Amino acid sequence: MDVSRRTLIVGGTSAIVGAGVGAGVGAGVTGLVSTERTGPVLWQRGDRSGAPRVGGLHLQYGADASTEVVVSWHTASAVCNPRILFGTPDDGLGQSAAAETVSYRDAASNTEVLVHHARLAHLAPDTDYVYAAVHDGASPELGTARTAPRGRSALRFTSFGDQSTPTLDALVASAFGSDNRGSPAAGDVTTAVERARPLFNLVNGDLCYANLSSDRIRTWSDWFENSSRSARHRPWMPAAGNHENELGNGPIGYGAYQAYFALPDSGSDPELRGLWYGFTAGSVRVISLSNDDICYQDGGNSYVRGYSGGAQKRWLEVELERTRRNGDIDWIVVCMHQTAVSTGNRTNGADLGIREDWLPLFDRFGVDLIVCGHEHHYERSHPIRGVLPTDTLTPATVDTHPTQIDTSKGTVHLVIGGGGTSIPSNKMFFPQPRCRVLTSVGGVDPATGQRIPNYIEEPAAWSAFRDPVNPYGFVAFDVDPGKPGGMTTMAATYYAVHGPFGEVTPVDRFTLTRPRRGG
């Protein structure tokens, strides 16, 4: 079907924008005022052709977030002519881009899912766009997108991990519940992130826990239905976590994740596509890593440590070296799932593999910020660089100021794992900061089917802040480029999320600073 004025009634097109256009940097989350819609937006005429609906609409950035956006959606059966109609709010939906279709077949259900990715290239930087995703016979789904600024400019991004879904869709103990560690908070966090209006959101792994579910496809669909409320307006850029590893789906278990997302090309082999990548927004370079490649813990449906044969580490070294040479980049932010630091007791703990493989590179090239999940709580490290003379490579603290942090001296690690899962760990901290480091694994535990972890416990002098009160939340980062020859800053606030309307409470505020590079 064609999208025409009979299908879209948009009042100059700007009416479809709503709260989705723009990424206001100055206003706080609690002060956000939503745009009221005063007229009709979309005439939803019922589909009569039997075509599947446009489901799970979401955005991703390309490697250059100032000019490239990918619009994606999925269907349960083949469709004809999947495409995006798009333009600026002033010009309307006058341009089009065809979507490419990829698919995967879920090994548990033998069900095929088709995912359609339309790449919008050569866009104008720092510009609002409106779009409609459609295929023949389906009603269009609308969204908005904003490209990143090119060069130094103020911007906001957000981050959290370990979300799951807010739906009760499985029989658990003879009643409907969640078999993928879901809770209503997963929906609350999406609402809160959208109220914050970031330019983009980083999802630090364990998106929906489909590998625990009796219906993996439905779990992915539920996650996209929830996240699409925000992700159709701003890219949710993910990192692969251990619960994205699904037995039988692809050569190493990430086939579903790799199909649903069209992420920037890292030059990896096809079977590793999308598992690590980078993109640039303003003066921020974001690097997403897949930690199961180097972690000791056995946490997925299959044990895949070492799956890239060192390819990811070689790519990371080249990527970090190139980024630090680039005078237009001030900030390096790494998004990943498992963590090198944790003060949780009886939780996953810190993984020695990250300390062995990633931290020396982070130190060598001066990475500013790490955002991760895996532990289902919030905590923050002091800036760390180098290690103490221990078998566990304990990170060395370089400064202990509680709120003003110069990241040119050391890297700050944030654990932001309260995205909505039903098993928060904020009540499981050691009374005084200590860290359980997972140093190796033993034989397979018959009860879990996974290798038994071995831990060493140590002091955690690097611990700066922990939130034992609030189970759910996210962090918002506001980048101020500063003046030439001066300092650039990144003001960060951890917000605890309460209730279905995305109400938030600021819990931890701190500011990262570093000398501005180049001119």
Kindly report the spatial arrangement of strands forming the biggest sheet.
Answer: 1-2-5-4-3-6-7
Major sheet summary line: 7 strands, antiparallel
**Assembly level:** single chain
Distance between the termini: 51 Å
Shape: globular
The portion of residues forming beta strands comes to 25-35%
- Unreliable residue stretches: 1-44
Report the average pLDDT across residues.
91
Radius of gyration, in Å, reads 22 Å
How many E strands? Answer: 28
What fraction, in percent, of the residue positions are helical? 10-25%
Topology:
Layout: E1 55-61, E2 69-75, E3 83-87, E4 95-106, E5 111-120, E6 128-134, E7 141-146, E8 155-160, E9 170-172, E10 175-177, H1 185-196, E11 200-203, H2 216-231, E12 236-238, H3 255-260, E13 277-281, E14 284-288, H4 311-325, E15 331-335, E16 350-351, H5 352-357, H6 359-365, E17 369-372, E18 378-381, E19 384-387, E20 395-397, E21 404-406, E22 412-416, E23 434-445, E24 450-459, E25 463-466, E26 473-480, E27 487-498, E28 503-515
Parallel strand pairs: 8-11, 11-12, 14-15, 15-17, 16-23, 17-22, 21-28
Antiparallel strand pairs: 1-2, 2-5, 3-4, 3-6, 4-5, 6-7, 8-26, 9-10, 13-14, 18-22, 18-25, 19-20, 23-24, 26-27, 27-28
Helix pairs in contact: 1-2
